[in-house]
Amino acid sequence: MPSSTFYVHEADVAQIHHFLEECSLCGKSLSGDIFMYRGDTPFCSEECRQQQIEVDRAKHRRKKRAAAHAVSVRKEHRNHHHHHQQPQPRPAIDANPWGTARGPALRV
């Protein structure tokens, strides 16, 4: 199992100390256990960490839905645009040489 401890060079301690001062979600001062997420986001508790995970999941789902919607809109637009550019069928030419419309047949 990999170790959860790591060595930090002394020159980086001040920068890291500032980074690990407060919870990324609630802003509470960090002391004692620090709960990390994605390796770069510190939280004061497992609850704050889990809330951030859920927020990120919801954002990811919205992005996926928006991307899928954009693809379907583009596809629909392309099909709609393509449909209008095809030549429309012309009505059959009437056998009447004078080009006048025929009325209903009269029965006597």
Annotation keywords:
single chain, 108 residues, mainly alpha, two-stranded antiparallel sheet, 6% strand
Care to describe what's here?
This protein is rod-shaped. Helices cover 46% and strands 6% of the residues. It has a domain at 10-84. It has a two-stranded antiparallel ribbon with strand order 1-2. It is built from two helices and two strands; from the N terminus they run H-E-E-H. A hairpin with a 3-residue loop joins strand 1 and strand 2 (41-43). The model has no long low-confidence stretch (mean pLDDT 76). With 108 residues, it is mostly helical. A zinc finger (FLZ-type) spans 18-60. InterPro entries: FLZ1/2/3 (IPR044533), Zf-FLZ_dom (IPR007650). Keywords: Metal-binding. Belongs to the FLZ family. Residues 56-108 are annotated as: Disordered.
At a glance:
This is FLZ-type domain-containing protein. Residues 58-67, 75-85 have a biased composition (Basic residues). With 108 residues, the chain is mainly alpha-helical.
Beta-strand percentage? 5-15%
Oligomer: single chain
List the secondary-structure elements in sequence, H or E. Answer: HEEH
**Overall morphology:** rod-shaped
**Class derived from helix and strand content:** mainly alpha
- Say how many strands there are: 2
User: Distance between termini?
Assistant: 101 Å
The helix content, as a percent range, equals 40-55%
Low-confidence parts, pLDDT < 50 over ≥5 residues?
A: none
**Number of helices, where a helix is a run of at least 4 consecutive DSSP H or I residues:** 2
Tell me the major beta sheet.
2 strands, antiparallel
User: What is the C-alpha radius of gyration, as a whole number of Å?
Assistant: 34 Å
Mean pLDDT: 76
Instruction: Give the strand line-up of the largest sheet.
Output: 1-2
Protein name: FLZ-type domain-containing protein
Zinc finger (FLZ-type): 18-60
Region (Disordered): 56-108
InterPro entries: FLZ1/2/3, Zf-FLZ_dom
